[in-house]
Design a protein that fits this description.
Blueprint (H helix, E strand, L loop, with lengths): L7 H29 L1 H8 L6 H15 L2 H14 L4 H14 L1 H7 L8 H13 L3 H27 L6 H9 L3 H15 L2 H13 L5 H14 L1 H7 L5 H21 L3 H11 L8 H28 L3 H11 L24 H32 L2 H29 L5 H35 L6 H26 L3 H9 L1 H18 L5 H39 L1
Helix pairs in contact: 1-8, 2-18, 3-4, 3-5, 4-5, 4-13, 4-14, 5-14, 5-16, 5-17, 6-11, 6-16, 7-8, 8-11, 10-11, 10-12, 11-12, 11-16, 12-14, 12-16, 13-14, 14-17, 15-16, 18-19, 18-20, 18-21, 19-20, 20-24, 21-22, 21-23, 21-24, 22-24, 23-24
C-alpha cells in the first residue's frame, strides 16, 4: 500500500482543534452538572464514611457526575487532610471513582458526531435565553455534550487520511505491545490531566478502523495510571494523610493495570462476547463499527472487576500507604492554619461552599470558647488566660483572611443564585464572628479584668451570671446554626431576644436604683457593671444577626 500525500497542517488543526473542543465540552458538561446537582453532591459526599461499599458506590456516582476520577480523588485528598474521612474510608471512594470514570467512555462509544451540532445549538439557546438557573444549567450540559461529540468527529475526520500512512499504522500496531501502550496512555493522560481524553482519542482512532481492541485496551490501562498525576500534584505540601490518599490511588491503579497486562486477550474476548456485532460489514468497516463499543465495555469491566477484587482489602492498601509515607514531626511557629479550605474542592462550588461553612463553623467554635474562657480567667485571676484570649483573637483574624480569600475564589466561578446567596451569608457570618471575638477579647474581657477585687453584691453577681449564661447559650445556638445548618437552633437563638433584653433591663434598673450621691467607688463599680451589660447585649445582637441570616440558609439546605 503506497503512502498518500498528507496535509499535516490541516491534520494537526483538526486533531488538536477537535481535542480542544472535546476537553472544553467535558468541562462544560461537568460545570453544568456541578451547578445543577451541587446540593445533591454535598449530601452524597456526606455519606462517604459509612462503609467501604457505600464509599465505592459514592465514588462512582460522584465521578460520573464530575466526569473525572482525578477531581474526585483530589476532593478525597482534601477530606482526608481535613480529618473528615480516615485513610481507610477513602480507599473505597478512590476505587469507586475508577468505575465512574468509565461513564464518559460509554457515552463516547455512541457515534453520533454527525448530529453533534444539534445539541450545541439547542444547548446554546437554553444557556443564553433561559431565565431560570436550572434551564441554563441543563443548556450548559447539552451544549457541552454536543461539543464533546463534535470534537470527537473533528479528530476522527482529521485522522482518516492516516489509514493509508504506513509509519502511523506501524506506531499503532506497536501500541499492542502492552508495556509500550501502557506508557503512552499514562504519559498522554498525565499531560492533559484527563483519562477521558485518552480513551476518547482511542475510541476516535478505533472508529476509523485505525486502532485494534488490544491496542485501545493498553492505552486505557495506561490512562488509569496517568490520571493519578493530578492527585499526586494536589498532595504536594499537604499533610501525610493527604499524600497517603494519593499513594493509595496510584498503588491501586498500577497494581490493577499490571494484573491485567498478561490477561488482555481474555479481557478482549469477554468484551467482544458482550458487545454488539456488525456481521453485515467486513474488514476496516466492521472494526470501525464494533471496536469503539468493545473498548468502552472492556474499560468498564476492567475497572468494575478490579474494584470488586480489591475492595475487601482497603485496610491493606491503607497500611501500604502508611508505610510508604511516614508521619512528619509537627512544625511549630504557625499561629493557626485553615483545616477545611481545600483548593481542590473549588472545582465544584457546592463542595467548596461546604468547606467554607465548615471552616466558618470552626472559627465560630473558637469564638465561643473565648467567651467561656473569660469566666475561667476571672475565676482564676489568671493573667495567662487573659493573654490567651488575645492569641485566640489573632487566630480568628488569620481564619477570617483565609475564608475571605477562599470565598473570593469561589465567587469567580459559575454560581447558581442559591450558591451566590450562600457566599454572601458566609461572608457576613465571618465578619460577624470576628466582631464578636473583638468584643470578647478587647472589651468584655478587659472590663472583667479591670473589675478585679471590686465585687458587686451577691444578687448583682447572680443577675450578671444569668445574663452571661443566656448570651453564652445564644452564641452556642448561633454556632450550631452555621456549623450544622440547624434552622431550629437559629430560631431559638433569635427567640432569646426577649429573655436577654429583660435580663439586661433588670440589671440596668438595679444599678440606677442603687446609685448614691457622694460615693465615687460605687459610681465606678456601677459604670463597669453597666459596661458589662452593654458588651453582653452587643454580643447577643451580633449572634442574633447571624442567626436571622442563617434561617433561610438552613431552610434551603433542608429542601
Amino acid at each position: 500500500m503506497g503512502n498518500i500525500e498528507i496535509n499535516w497542517l490541516q491534520l494537526g488543526m483538526g486533531l488538536f482543534g477537535g481535542l480542544a473542543l472535546f476537553l472544553a465540552g467535558l468541562e462544560q458538561v461537568s460545570n453544568g452538572l456541578k451547578q445543577a446537582a451541587g446540593r445533591t453532591l454535598k449530601l452524597v459526599l456526606g455519606k462517604l464514611t459509612t462503609n467501604r461499599f457505600t464509599g465505592a458506590l459514592t465514588g462512582a456516582l460522584v465521578t460520573g457526575v464530575l466526569n473525572s476520577s482525578s477531581v474526585t480523588t483530589v476532593l478525597v485528598v482534601g477530606f482526608v487532610t481535613a480529618g473528615v474521612m480516615s485513610l481507610q474510608q477513602s480507599v473505597g471512594v478512590i476505587m469507586g471513582a475508577n468505575i465512574g470514570s468509565t461513564v464518559t467512555a460509554q457515552i463516547l462509544a455512541f457515534n453520533i458526531a454527525a448530529y453533534a451540532l444539534a445539541p450545541v445549538a439547542i444547548g446554546f439557546f437554553m444557556l443564553f435565553a433561559g431565565r431560570r438557573d436550572r434551564v441554563r444549567q441543563i443548556g450548559m450540559m447539552v451544549m457541552g455534550l454536543g461539543l464533546v461529540f463534535f470534537g470527537m468527529g473533528l479528530m476522527s475526520d482529521a485522522m482518516r487520511p492516516l489509514r493509508s500512512y504506513q509509519p502511523f499504522i506501524d506506531i499503532l500496531v506497536s501500541m499492542e505491545r502492552p508495556v509500550l501502550g501502557l506508557l503512552a496512555g499514562a504519559l498522554f493522560t498525565a499531560l492533559v490531566q484527563s483519562s477521558a481524553a485518552t480513551v476518547g482519542i482511542a475510541i476516535a482512532l478505533a472508529s476509523e478502523g485505525l486502532l485494534s481492541l488490544t491496542g485501545g485496551l493498553t492505552l486505557a490501562l495506561g490512562a488509569n495510571i496517568g490520571t493519578c498525576a493530578t492527585a499526586l500534584l494536589a498532595a504536594i505540601g499537604k499533610p501525610p494523610a493527604a499524600v497517603r490518599a494519593s499513594v493509595v490511588h496510584l498503588t491501586f491503579n498500577v497494581v490493577g493495570a499490571l494484573l491485567w497486562l498478561p490477561l488482555l486477550s481474555l479481557l478482549a474476548d469477554i468484551a467482544v462476547a458482550v458487545s454488539p456485532t456488525s456481521p453485515e460489514l467486513s474488514g476496516v468497516a466492521r472494526a470501525a463499527a464494533e471496536v469503539p463499543r468493545q473498548l468502552a465495555n472492556a474499560n468498564t469491566m476492567f475497572n468494575v472487576i478490579n474494584t470488586a477484587l480489591f475492595l475487601p482489602f482497603t485496610s491493606v492498601f491503607a497500611r501500604i500507604a502508611e508505610r510508604l509515607v511516614k508521619e512528619k514531626p509537627e512544625a511549630h511557629g504557625a499561629l493557626i492554619e485553615p483545616k477545611f479550605l481545600d483548593e481542590a474542592a473549588l472545582a465544584a462550588p457546592a463542595l467548596a461552599l461546604e468547606n467554607a461553612r465548615r471552616e466558618t463553623g470552626r472559627m465560630a467554635e473558637i469564638v465561643q470558647q473565648m467567651l467561656v474562657d473569660v469566666a475561667a480567667a476571672v475565676r482564676d485571676r489568671s493573667t495567662e488566660r487573659f493573654e490567651a484570649l488575645h492569641r485566640k483573637s489573632q487566630e480568628i483574624a488569620v481564619l477570617q483572611a483565609a475564608i475571605f480569600e477562599y470565598l473570593g475564589t469561589i465567587r469567580t466561578g459559575l454560581l447558581s443564585e442559591d450558591e451566590s446567596q450562600r457566599v454572601q451569608f458566609l461572608t457576613e457570618a465571618v465578619v460577624t464572628f470576628e466582631s464578636i471575638a473583638s468584643v470578647v477579647a478587647k472589651d468584655f474581657a478587659e472590663i472583667m479584668r479591670q473589675l478585679g477585687d471590686q465585687q458587686p453584691s451577691e444578687q448583682t453577681r447572680e443577675m450578671i451570671r444569668g445574663l452571661y449564661e443566656s448570651v453564652l447559650e445564644a452564641l452556642d445556638l448561633c454556632v450550631r446554626a452555621v456549623r450544622d445548618e440547624d434552622g431550629d437552633a437559629a430560631d431559638r437563638a433569635v427567640a432569646m431576644n426577649e429573655t436577654i433584653e429583660r435580663q439586661a433591663q433588670e440589671l440596668l434598673a438595679r444599678q440606677a436604683d442603687r446609685l448614691r450621691p457622694g460615693d465615687p467607688d460605687y459610681l465606678q463599680l456601677a459604670r463597669m457593671q453597666m459596661s458589662i451589660v452593654d458588651k453582653l447585649a452587643r454580643i447577643y445582637d451580633l449572634c442574633a444577626r447571624v442567626a436571622r441570616t442563617a434561617i433561610p440558609q438552613a431552610t434551603s439546605a433542608a429542601a
